[in-house]
Each structure stands twice: as C-alpha cells, then as structure tokens.
Amino acid sequence: MNRRVPSALVTVAALFASTGVASAHVRYVTPGSDPVSVLEFLVAALSDPFNLVVLGLGGVAVGVGLAGYLRFRPAQHDIAVFRSSLADYRDLLPWLLRLSVGLPLVGAGFSGYFFAPIVEPAAPTFVRLFGITVGFLLLFGFGTRLVAAVGLVAYLVGLALNPALVLAVEYVPGFLALALVGGGRPSADQLVAKLAADDRTLYSRIDPFYRAVAVPFVERVRPYETYVPTILRVGLGLSFIYLGVAQKLMNPGEALAVVAKYDLTSVVPVAPELWVVGAGLTETLVGVMLIVGLFTRAFSGVAFALFTTTLFGLPDDPVLAHISLFGLVSALLVTGAGPFSLDAWLHARDVDAGDPAATDEGLVGGRITSNDSR
C-alpha cells in the first residue's frame, strides 16, 4: 500500500476532475444493464486500500480547501466584483429560466418523449404537441406564469403515473421559478403588458385579463420572488443527490456499464468501482452543498463543469435532456444562494463585522425585476 500512495496523490486530482464523464443520466445510455448487488459492489470498492486512499485524499482536499478559504478569505475584493458583475444580469433571469425549460421541452416534443428520454408514452401525438406547445410558449414568453403552472401539473401527474420521471425532477424548481418571476424581458408578456397598461391604446380597452387577473396575481406573488434562488438550489440539490445516490451508488450495474461502454478507465486508470463511487460521491457533495447554500456559486460552477465533461465525454448522450440542468445551474451563478442559506448567514456575519468587501449587491440573491404581469 505504501508503494501505491504516491500514485494515489496524482490519481485523486485526475479522478475528481474527470468524474463528470460518468455522471450522466446512466439510463439514457445503458438501458437494460445487468443488475449488480449494491452491498457486494460497495464492499468490493471500499475494501481496496488504494480506493480508500484516493477517496480519502479527495475528501480531505475538499475539506481543507473550503476551510482554508473561510479562514484566510483570499482575494475578497475580486470575489465581490465577480459577484456584483453576475448580479447585474438578474433582470435577465426570467429569460434564462425560459430558455432552460423551453428548449428541452421543444426537443422532447420533436423527439416524442415526455420530459425524460426514457419516458415515451403510448400517445406520441399528444406528447409531441404538449412539448412543442409548452416549450415554444415559454421561449416566446407568452402567458409564462400560466404555462409554467400547466407544465408543473403535467410533470407531477406524469411522475405519479411513471416514477421514472424523477430523472427530470429539475423541471419542478424550473417551473416554480418561472411561475414566480414571469416572462421578464425580452418576452411577449412584457410587450402585451405595456400595451394593456397604457390607457391610450386600443388594446387596453379590449383586454379584460390584465387589470382583473394578471396585476393582482403579480402583486400577490411579488414578495415571494426573493425565494427563487432557494427554490432553484434546493431543487437542483435534490436532483444531484438522486443522481449520485440512486443512479450511481444504489444502481452500480448501469453505472459500471457506462464506465465499460466508454472505456473510462483508459482516461484515468483506476478500477471501474472507483469511477462509480467517485462520481456518486461528487454528485452527492454538490447536491448537499447546494441544498445548504454554502459556496453556492462555486459548486454551481463545479456542476456546470460536470455537465460539460459529460457532453464531450459521452457522445451519444441526449444533450437536450441536460439543457435544463445547464440553464438552472447558470441561473444560480447569477442569483447566488438566496435566503435560508449558509452563504446568507456568512454574508450577514461579515456585514456585522464591518468587512468592507461584504457588499450587499449580488451576494445572496434578491428580488428579480420583471416588467410583465403575465
């Protein structure tokens, strides 16, 4: 074992940097893989001293890195400028959310599946019409809140009928966020709202919906817009934990099949079991950190890197199925952690301590400005 420790020091960095290649939705690329006993798999993976050293070094490296940052806080002004720059895009957040949800739905409609590629109902015409219609309405930003509510209900009904749809659970926070922020700009909702709000336009005289329904609803939900970052990170965090635990650690047969199919052991020469455990633990860690809201932007960046690695590492993986994850993670880069997060607590502590680098802007989310009432 002592002879293998030096090589473990080199391997751990490469493994955790490349583990995203095995982090796709494994059912998409390896349907029908042979089942493998979870207990036997974990015993085999964790009984190898080399595997334990690599995983242990990875965990220590992450822990020391995070603790070291909290202790020494390097480049605080640079980080504050970075956060503030990202926060400047907050008024475009509704547009980003619409693209994140609308594009994969259009792709699902044209491909004939319902939210997730492994769910192909017996009524393909309805599925195609649903995906294309809801997706394009979101892309155009027309009736955004209503369309998002319809999409959310459709997903939840589908999930109740087919639990496999849990693979696409990121649509839940996406739809909820859109129901709160609306279409934003640029969108058809913004254009229609401006026409309806101006008493001098002909349209304002024939639209009974704007003042009677849309405006009161927007005023009712406006106080909850500040919780959009919380909804996104908790929803994405649960999705990552599911992918890491249920799809990797508790389903090693299909995960091992991914490693074998793409010869991932030639990329980083370690045992297939270490690939699977490393990918599962990495995704689980990202999920936990997003849920608690600690280093939210940093771990959103890690998640984005995992998806990018998957995109280039698994050539036949359905890219459209991951656009929602790409977009929602990008939204968290803009918003930060939001309320009920450790990031917010750390920020409040720094402000109380008089830290000049702890600016209010761009650190913990905030209200998303929106000019539409649809």
From TrEMBL:
Pfam families found in the cross-reference section:
DoxX
Q: Where in the cell is it found?
A: Cell membrane
* Residues forming coiled coils: none
Q: Which UniProt keywords apply?
A: Cell membrane, Membrane, Transmembrane, Transmembrane helix
Task: Please give the GO cellular component terms listed in this UniProt entry.
Answer: plasma membrane
Q: What is its main location?
A: membrane
Transmembrane helix keyword on record: yes
The portions of this protein that span the membrane are 50-72, 92-116, 122-140, 147-169, 285-307, 319-340
User: What is the protein's membrane topology class?
Assistant: Multi-pass membrane protein
PANTHER family listed in its UniProt record: INNER MEMBRANE PROTEIN YPHA-RELATED, OXIDOREDUCTASE CATD-RELATED
Q: What is the name of this protein? A: Uncharacterized membrane protein YphA, DoxX/SURF4 family
What is the source species? Halogranum amylolyticum
